[in-house]
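INTERNAL AUDIT FORM
Audit reference: QA-55
Scope: verify that the stored structure record matches its stored sequence.
Auditor: D.O.
Record contents follow.
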Amino acid sequence: MTETIRCWLVEREYDDKGLVTLTYATPDGESVYRRELAASAASGVTAAKELSPDQLEAVPDEETRERYATEVDRTADRYDPDDPI
């Protein structure tokens, strides 16, 4: 069985081309997964995703890691993993 890590939605950015970038982070804020979607496809976004370690990239900036860890706590307190967000 492949190891997975639960990552929580910490950021959603829209651009002027109708795309949305979703950022999911590990609870410690050390790693992230980013996904770009058409804004119209972003309606089925859930609060958390189970991801394999090879899907994650490191967050180099300590301030960003702390911000992501804080957002993970906030999101996890408010939502169940499968809740639409």
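Auditor finding: record pair retrieved intact. The chain has a mean pLDDT of 93.
Action required: none
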